[in-house]
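task queued by scheduler; priority normal; single chain, no ligands, no partner chains; default sampling; output format set to structure tokens
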Amino acid sequence: MGASFTDIFLSNRMALIRSVKRIVADPQAAEDVAQEAFVRVSRAVEGGSVEHVEAFLFQTARNLALNHKRSRQVRGEIERGDVCETDVENVASTAPSQEAELLHRERLQQLQAAMAKLPERAQRVWALSKIEKWPYPKIAEHLGVSPNTVFNDLKMAHAHCMEALARIDRG
């Protein structure tokens, strides 16, 4: 039955494309839709569930053409074709500028240098609190110090970092 379907398709191909073209108004899209109809109907015919192959072929092509037209209309409502290329090219990027990246790296290096100057325990307290998100009592127990010492070490680390950033900002 596959060969007879191919014969039916080939003998009706031009009429099918003209029929689809009236709906989609695009010769290339009409060719694509006709080809898709061939593939879908071919599968259905192989499954043996089609009685009137020619009518089924035209109805399938019509449905695909209508779907194509609807899809194109929806895209037309969402996408704007009247935007000129220079407008698209001039849309601001959300990526930081090279200058902002450089400043950010410089600030990060200054913070790392400031942190390196802190006592070892203050560095550990800061890392456990800010990076690991441990609460003060857990840090205190882990390091064998009081929660008040943890608070004071964090306060010292914070002040040290703020001082380093202020030096950068003063330039």
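post-processing summary
- The chain is about 80% helix and 0% strand.
- The mean pLDDT is 89.
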